Amino acid sequence: MPTFPLGYTGTVFRNLSNPRNWSPGVLLLWLLVSALAQSGIGVAPPRYELVLAPGDSTTQTVALFSRNTPDQVIEVSLVDWLIDPDGGVKTLPPGSLPYSAAAWLRTALDPFTLERDATHEVRFTVSVPASPELSGSYRAALAFTTEPRPVERKGIVALMRTRALAVVYVTVQGTEQPAAELQGVTVVADEGSGKRYLVADVVNTGNVYLRLNGELRFVDTAGEVARRVALPERVLLREGLVRYRLALPEDLPEDAILAQIEIQPQGPAGGYGGPPLYGEVALR
User: Fold this and answer.
1) Of 145, 172, 199, which residue is a domain's last?
2) Which of 23, 74, 85, 228 is deepest in the core (most CB within 10 A)?
């Protein structure tokens, strides 16, 4: 299974011009769609952030919709998933990860037909085991995958499958311990283009997932902030790592001498995520 960029839509993950990617007669291609895809299939809402006590359960509904596509048979499955440091999402068989919640989810796994420009609702139940040993955040996802359909790329017939994910976070109520560390703030230059980047790692040292927001500031010789750049939101999974690689603006004032990064973690379901994280690095 390939690694998908988070929220990606409409990209073929095999290079059709490379013969090493060919197989007899057809190729199998994968697409991962965002919840707001302009065509194909999507899910709403794209994520569920649940806080439950041991022994509790809840039933939720996810809507799968089709846009500008013919009728399609949809396969339903439960999967584990992870995010690599650069933000790519990879799906895995259920139960593969130490903090998998796949065994806690129940839903009908029978295939169904999603009609063109229609919506199909799927109900699922999350039941947290009544165990005092559980703590922190767990996760899984409902995967909705189309049957292979033939497409043509550069004269080659391929079979294409599209997958949409509804991700489910489950945090055990009263056991949250949010914590993170900012490490290794540096400025590096691309060997080819010479373009400079600020690189920083954020490591999750707690037991819950976090959402990271913040800003990058550039300070001049007078100690004034010459430029502010908002950081894109990132998800920092339990025991995970987020790597920022932020291009420095080419039109920075000549007297900008310091880059400061400040990140505000947010805990599960919008709760407390710990104190702000701060780092800085000289630009010259």
Assistant:
1) 172
2) 74
